[in-house]
Predict the structure of Pyrroline-5-carboxylate reductase.
Amino acid sequence: MIQSWPDHLLLVGCGNMAGQMLSRWLDCGLDPARVTVLRPSGRPVADGVAVVTDYPDALPAGTTVLLGMKPYQIAAVAAALAPLCAADTRIVSILAGTTLADLRARFSAARDIVRAMPNLPVGLGEGVTALFTDAATATQAKADVAALIEPLGLVEWIADEALFNQVTALSGCGPAFLFRFIDALARAGEAIGIPADQAARMALATVQGSADMAARAADSPGVLADKVASPGGMTREGLNVLDADDRLLALLTDTLAAARDRGEAMARGA
Ligand SMILES: NC(=O)C1=CN([C@@H]2O[C@H](COP(=O)(O)OP(=O)(O)OC[C@H]3O[C@@H](n4cnc5c(N)ncnc54)[C@H](OP(=O)(O)O)[C@@H]3O)[C@@H](O)[C@H]2O)C=CC1
Ligand SMILES: O=C(O)[C@@H]1CCC=N1
């Protein structure tokens, strides 16, 4: 597709997550002169990107604002930013646990508000971003936001905001769970006698190769697992441990549920 970028993009906060999004956009051709980053530290971001430590007096017409600070900072940010917003200011929020209703209440002048939940691999164009908005957001704004997010990887519109904490648990938090898995696979290898550095290399490459293969395969991951397992062989014995009482499934379900519950608590202001 031919990428059409916002004329003006203001990032409020540019840390781990928004920084990855911006890095990918710049790699894909976004003109840095269109970007302003507001961050208290004033730390430089990238060549040509303006960094400010305070809000401008006004926003250029049609500015797209990416809210990329921590969720608990929304009240302070909205107090300073909302008076600068007009009907044509587009707001994209990546704040976990911050509902569209909350954003609409705080940015009442803005018509187009979209919740986005990216994950860290967006910096490679291999991320996942969930999107949600409501009927008040214009169709063109939805399309423009989707086009902005598209270079980051998989884009999934979520029909029901009630599922937003669930998808955040799966894909937003997911990289942390998978990094933990890779680490645990390596440490388990070490525990059964493989030198630590070799186990770390082998665990990472095994996960990378398996994910790449699963992404290209016609078979589902569940079927692929069975293809690795020779009847009466080693893999089946290992799978029997993971599968006993749905151990791995139960562990991951508990993991996602805990993350989801925290999102719901954050939405209640906890
Ligand atoms: N980390 C992740 O994997 C994901 C995070 N998110 C969401 O992204 C958001 C940011 O998380 P993350 O990037 O991890 O956090 P970071 O701590 O890495 O980044 C926070 C950013 O906010 C800036 N900031 C701090 N105070 C203010 C303020 N008062 N006004 C404006 N900006 C401020 C910081 O500035 P400075 O750089 O100057 O310190 C920094 O750039 C959160 O809302 C989180 O829910 C969503 C999906 C995944
Ligand atoms: O931990 C958090 O709250 C955010 C949301 C998804 C990833 N990081």
